[in-house]
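Ops channel
N.P.: pipeline sanity check, posting one input/output pair.
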């Protein structure tokens, strides 16, 4: 999901009054031209010209098109985690209906099971009151630790602090420290997904630059769910603006709580910008709605789709050559094991070690050999083998 624009400090009150209020504000920018600024915007190491693609872009596309053949080492947890066996970790995602968030949970569950711990899911359903209820239930119903998925600490600081005050360590997965917190502690830690999300945005934009020969006219769908998703959208737009002088980019923003509005937003934006040649989803959660909007606007033969997260429907569209031509997947099962590693370190009295996450660029050149089913999506098969599991288990002293 995961992710990294920053909300103002009054966002907690706004969101608690209703996620739809944020969507209304974001929708006002629908179709407006984006004019990125900022001196620290990303570069590829070589900007694409208006007639071609830089060698740096081509190298990135080749590198990320392949499945992983090796995985990073994982530092040992002193003393191991066998003493944590039997404990229960709650997973509270901002919304379990999003496929990648569900698969983060699946990877977390697998990692915890390998270490002898139990797993419990409580779905935040993109509703602040439901998220708060899950956090409260974790405290009252005996959770030994909690992992949240893409829930900003500053949204519900009192609910998070209630857990830690009861001796329940919390890993705020996918978000950076904010709300007055500046660093991780064994009781409250942050596993920042910004780097992986930004890298995914960079790769997907590189695929568009290469496919268009540096002349893409892009409609970009940004996500307002959290500070991380908002910041990642900024990163992706700035990348295009600074690395593709022959490209243009317009934007539609949406909040996943009202994702049903995406088809009409996309159709309206395409009608307003008839020269659009590419539609890029920051996250694949909107992919089906985006495709529907393209159909409604009569643009199925005028634009190409791309996005990030590596959702099943996105890869199926690529394989069937149905509008979508590329997608960047963030390995969800591996990331779930990273979350398990993080919370196990907290239970052992330490803090998470921020690792790297395998990414893969999917195109028609590599999806043909993949089994594109829900069962396959719930494994690591699209990204590499399962040898990473032993890497984690060795670090935990349970291999």
């Amino acid at each position: 999901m995961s992710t990294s624009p920053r909300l103002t400090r009054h966002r907690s009150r706004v969101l608690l009054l209703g996620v739809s209020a944020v969507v209304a504000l974001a929708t006002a920018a629908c179709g407006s031209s984006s004019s990125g600024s900022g001196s620290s915007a990303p570069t590829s190491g070589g900007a694409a010209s208006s007639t071609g693609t830089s060698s740096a872009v081509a190298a990135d596309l080749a590198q990320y098109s392949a499945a992983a053949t090796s995985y990073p080492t994982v530092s040992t947890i002193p003393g191991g985690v066998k003493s944590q066996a039997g404990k229960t970790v709650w997973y509270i995602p901002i919304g379990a209906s999003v496929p990648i968030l569900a698969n983060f949970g699946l990877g977390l569950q697998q990692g915890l099971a390998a270490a002898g711990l139990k797993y419990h899911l409580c779905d935040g359903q993109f509703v602040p009151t439901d998220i708060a209820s899950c956090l409260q239930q974790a405290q009252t119903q005996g959770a030994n630790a909690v992992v949240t998925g893409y829930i900003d600490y500053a949204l519900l600081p009192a609910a998070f602090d209630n857990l830690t005050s009861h001796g329940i360590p919390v890993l705020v997965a996918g978000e950076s420290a904010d709300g007055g917190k500046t660093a991780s502690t064994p009781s409250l830690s942050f596993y920042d997904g910004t780097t992986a999300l930004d890298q995914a945005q960079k790769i997907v934009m590189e695929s568009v630059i290469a496919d268009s020969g540096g002349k893409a006219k892009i409609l970009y769908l940004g996500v307002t769910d959290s500070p991380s998703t908002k910041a990642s959208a900024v990163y992706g737009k700035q990348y295009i603006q600074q690395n593709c002088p022959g490209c243009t980019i317009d934007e539609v923003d949406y909040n996943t709580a009202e994702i049903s509005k995406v088809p009409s937003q996309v159709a309206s934006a395409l009608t307003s910008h008839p020269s659009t040649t590419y539609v890029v989803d920051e996250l694949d959660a909107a992919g089906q709605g985006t495709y529907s909007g393209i159909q409604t606007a009569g643009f199925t033969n005028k634009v190409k789709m791309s996005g990030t997260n590596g959702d099943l429907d996105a890869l199926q569209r690529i394989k069937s050559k149905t509008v979508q031509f590329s997608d960047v997947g963030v390995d969800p099962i591996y990331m779930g094991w990273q979350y398990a590693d993080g919370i196990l370190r907290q239970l052992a009295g330490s803090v998470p070690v921020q690792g790297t996450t395998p990414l893969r660029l999917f195109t028609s050149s590599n999806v043909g050999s993949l089994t594109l089913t829900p069962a396959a999506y719930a494994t690591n098969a699209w990204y590499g083998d399962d040898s990473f599991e032993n890497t984690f288990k060795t670090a935990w002293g349970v291999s």
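N.P.: looks fine end to end. Residues 194-212 form the longest helix (19 residues).
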